[in-house]
Amino acid sequence: MTRKRRAGFSLPLPWVGGLAGRLKPALRLALVALLLLACEREERRFREMPSAAGRRNTERLTTLVPGPYTADVKVDNPYGYNAFAISEGKRLFTWYNCQGCHANGGGGMGPPLMDDRWRYGSDPEQIFATIVEGRPNGMPSFRGKIPEYQVWQLVAYVHSLSGNVPKDAAGGRQDNMQVRKQEQALPDLKLEREAAPAQ
Amino acid sequence: MRGIQSALEPAGPQAEQIARLWDVFLITAAVVWLLVMLFTIAALLRRRPEIVPNAASPRVRNAVIAATGLTVLTLFALLTASIFTTRGIASVPDRAIQIAVTAKQWWWQIDYDDRDKSKRFTTANEIVIPVGHPVTVHLRSSDVIHSFWVPSLHGKRDMIPGKPPSTFTFQADKPGVYRGQCAEFCGYQHANMSFWVTALPFPEYAKWVEANRQPSRIPSTHTQRKGQEVFMNSPCPLCHTIQGTPANGKTGPDLTHFGSRRSIAAGTFPNRRGFLGGWILDAQHLKPGSQMPSMTLEQGELEPLISYLESLK
Amino acid sequence: MSEGVSEHGAHVASAKPLEEHFKKEGTKHSPYSLPGDEILHEQLEKTWSPAKGPFRFFMQVDHKILGKRFVVTAFIWFGLGGILAALMRMQLSRPDNTFLSADQYNQIFTMHGVTMMFLFAVPIMEAIAVYMVPLLLGSRALAFPRLTAYSYFMFLFGGILLYTAFFLNTGPDTGWFTYPPLANPEFAPGKRVDVWAQLVNFTEISAIAVAIELIVTILKQRAPGMSVNRLPLYVWSMLITSFMIVFAMPAVMTSSFYLASDRLVGTHFFNPAEGGDPLLWQHLFWFFGHPEVYIIFLPALGMVSHIVTTFTRRQVFGYTAMVLSQVATGFIGFGLWVHHMFATGIPALGSSYFTAASMLIAIPSGIQIFCWIATIWMGRPVWKPPFLFVLGFIAIFVLGGLTGVMLASIPLDLQVHDTMFVVAHLHYVLIGGAVFPLFGVLYYWFPKITGRMQNDTAGYVSFALMFIGFNLTFFPMHKLGLIGMTRRIYTYHPETGWGPLNALSSIGALVLGLGVIVYVLNGLISWKKGAVAGSNPFDGPTLEWATSSPPPEYNFVNIPTVSGHEPLWHAPEHAPVVTGLSTTEKEILITRTFDAEPDHRYTMPTPTPWPFLAAVATAVMFVGGLFTVWAFVIGLPIAGIIVTCWFWPTTPRKEGEAPA
């Protein structure tokens, strides 16, 4: 009789409980995945730990090294799936006047960044090297001019220009005149993707 | 209890008028509230005759009608007072000093206008005005909506991006330093987006303006020269301008006369060596999310850099 | 006590003769009972029985079951919102505090606002109406029961979405008002603002659906004789509120769709560089946002009228004036949204109109206050907790109304806009004006809903704590705003001088929280262990007290008729009742809109899972819509199929066939 009073109220607990029990491992896995993805996308890391901020450059211009052969150290962009960092990268792209030569990623004085042709490589550490070291024929070296964590933010943004960051983290339209599609809507470039490590 | 930016301590005619209007409203409201409470308590405690659930009482009815009438009259009086004050604070004098204020996430850029382009200059987070002289500010925003508010001088005005500059005029009648703050939520550091308005007697004001029209001081000591080198070789000039040097970045505050400012980081810390050093090395700890990056400097670079910045009087 | 429990439970569970039930509880005989009600009772209970079986949770259509669920769910969100408020007060309790970071604080204050406005204030008012309105009208059901189920699940899913997102660090962080450009993708990357936009869609669909049910119920399902001039004041307020919801909520849904499409598709509604306008947002938002305040507080005024009537033993003074005041509030409420935008620099002439309108709205509120005082004056107060909550309401709400008049004045608003003064004002109006009456009325209707009494001592204690705590928390904020403390700041410096008052306010919040906890605990414990209430423990005058507590599934054995404002106080020994409704079909009586003359019979639908499935489909669509527009393309046909099943006609009764 008390059962009835609660009729509309309580979950049919045994049933839900049983189902939850059977699905528990899967549920837990899905939950963890969701948690990781969402957290990585949404985190606002204003202040980098010293090791990340002053990260040692592992990128090299050549694979030739003295001594025994060592495999290339692959570096992941710490911001590859962080919406805030990508948007910071977009702001810095203008602030540090990348805009001046690579207008909105479309190219101008410098090569376009929205296509699938990458003269100096499209891996995160290669783009990092391009910014920090500079490249022949006009790309200046920003060593010491841009703090390293901001360079990584720029790398993440540059990657978003060819659709190489997840769409839910890529930037939306900006508050200026529309000059091209927002990064969310840019096509994922295939060639690029093959060259780049799995993001 | 007094605040450092109180609307109850007006220092100019506009804020003064609003404060007087406040007094009118406050007293009226207090009287009304007390009357309502008095009648409620009386109604609760009065001795009463036999109750009849539906009894009509012409006396009570008339009292309710009278109270309603009184409400209407009071509101009408308050409305009139309010509209007169609105007109009073809106009057625009002919000869006001023109200052452009641009709000950015999370600081204020101040531009002093002049017909002669060479006499224009830019500063940040501190407005200096002459006492007893009307000042018209032209308010703009370059990113999101901010709101300009100096309680002791005037009410607030929103700064909406994409709109023509919004102007309003205020005046300070007493010399002093008045604090202002952004009043529209604008992101992470909305809390730390304040500024100072310093009202000086006219001769001092003119002197200040003249000083600010000059390019920056040339470093005089060895340490300061070293500091300037550090500044120019670090990321600083990409965002900051120092007139008279190659540094001409436009996205951060102008530092030409940085040493003469009261505070750093938009009124967040006093402009002292310790805070300045902390600010350069770890801005993201002191003001998380602000657009000043935390810097990595080499051994022995910080001291000269601070000395140089402090010398920019 | 334990004997009482079983006695009482037995009544609800099995078909025990009503006559005996009334006798056992020693209450007045209902004027609407007839000999032979026992047989009717048995048949009706079978016909109106709720869904059974393991899936019953997803199938219920009874307005009382859904109403209770609505109330409990809304209270869960209220508790979460309250915890967030406590966190904020903790952070602000002293200058330069580092308890929360800027990012956390922004999410928390936004979540607090969003929770209280979208997941508590409006839903709880509608929830109580879902439960009570049919009872107050003497009807057996709420119109469109399946739609009620759908709205409940939409509301539930919306809240779950918001809090899941929050725990995944994706809680909206641009304020409950979400002004662009701060909410534009350039300044709010990630999915946080999109969660806000979709939550609004969830809750507003739910709110509009319930509003339509209430309008139809109130206009068409009243007991015979309950012409519009005899409608209980609470029902009047719900009617006006529902109409306001129908007109106000589309504005916010429009703006949230604009925002979502700006963020997801790259439209430019709020981008000035491409011809959009951030002010468009503010107009749309406040065209909803200001009526929202009245949507929250008009029902509360209706509740106050009922409590005042019952606990002064007297009819409310000035029924016509009260109703007209509420109607006036409903209309004027749509004409003053610009007073939230005085600081944007809108031309003075236009603004002055809104100043006048904002002051004008004080008049109907004033009239209602005067009428209640007159009622108390002429009646005899009964000092029960609900009545105390109403007295607290008068003290707090009048103060909040007066600060509202100050905010209507442009010059004063320019100083105190977006400061703690406004925070104080809005809490005086919303907590004082809506939560106090709400707590009072929940105390008052608690025996009706649960069949048990709350503990009066705990009621007095919770009222005292809440009243003191509330004023301690929010009164200092008036002063804080005047001495320059702006809203939505996560920290402040010691030299601002705001420290002591903030500390006081934080202590007050503790007391207030304690009061709420005592109240909720009292409710929870009484629900299980309270003294058994009779059908009319407070001797209330309106129809909800004419049936047993809690009411049976079919609400009334005999549909009552009404001949005045307080039917139970003036009813003869045996009042006339409606006969002729089927006992084997879920039939209700439809009456005419104005004079409530019986018009025709209407059959209510049976329990079904389709509303639940439709809500799931809509939820999938909206949640998927956070990430891709394709969610709508895929979700719409699925929702369409489900809705088709929902409305698939079941063997209709043939023309002329007699009800079995």
Structure overview:
The complex is a heterotrimer of chains A (199), B (313) and C (660). Chain A has helices at 2-5, 13-42, 50-53, 83-95, 124-133, 148-160, 190-195. Chain A is mainly alpha-helical. Chain A is globular, with a radius of gyration of 23 Å. Chain B is an alpha+beta fold. In chain B, α1 runs antiparallel to α2, α4 crosses α6 and α5 crosses α6 (302-311). The mean pLDDT of chain B is 91. In chain C, β3 and β4 form a beta hairpin. Chains B and C meet through α1 and α2 of B and α5, α11, α12, α13 and α14 of C.
Determine the most extensive contact between two protein chains.
B-C, 84 and 89 residues
Tell me the number of helical segments of chain B per DSSP (H or I, 4 or more residues long).
6
Supply the helix-strand structural class of chain A: mainly alpha
Tell me the quaternary state: heterotrimer
Give the H and E element order of chain A.
HHHHHHH
Q: What is the CA-atom radius of gyration of chain A, in angstroms?
A: 23 Å
Kindly report how far apart the N and C termini of chain B lie: 35 Å
Alpha-carbon distance between the two ends of chain A: 58 Å
Overall strand count of chain B:
12
**Which secondary-structure class do the elements of chain B indicate?**
alpha+beta
**Helix fraction bin of chain B:** 25-40%
Number of helices of chain A: 7
Helix content of chain A: 40-55%
**SSE order of chain B:** HHEEEEEEEEEEHHEEHH
Secondary structure layout:
The complex is a heterotrimer of chains A (199), B (313) and C (660).
Chain A: H1 2-5, H2 13-42, H3 50-53, H4 83-95, H5 124-133, H6 148-160, H7 190-195
Helix pairs in contact in A: 4-6, 5-6
Chain B: H1 13-45, H2 58-90, E1 97-104, E2 107-112, E3 121-124, E4 126-130, E5 135-141, E6 146-148, E7 157-159, E8 166-170, E9 176-181, E10 194-200, H3 202-213, H4 222-233, E11 263-264, E12 269-270, H5 273-286, H6 302-311
Parallel strand pairs in B: 1-5, 4-10
Antiparallel strand pairs in B: 1-2, 2-3, 5-8, 6-7, 9-10, 11-12
Chain C: H1 2-13, H2 18-25, H3 37-47, H4 63-92, H5 102-137, H6 145-167, H7 192-220, H8 233-264, H9 278-312, H10 319-332, H11 348-360, H12 362-378, H13 385-408, H14 410-416, H15 420-450, H16 456-482, H17 499-529, E1 559-560, H18 567-570, E2 577-578, E3 587-591, E4 598-603, H19 610-624, H20 630-646
Helix pairs in contact in C: 4-5, 4-6, 4-17, 5-6, 5-7, 5-9, 6-7, 6-19, 7-8, 8-9, 8-10, 9-12, 9-15, 10-12, 12-13, 13-15, 13-16, 15-16, 16-17, 19-20
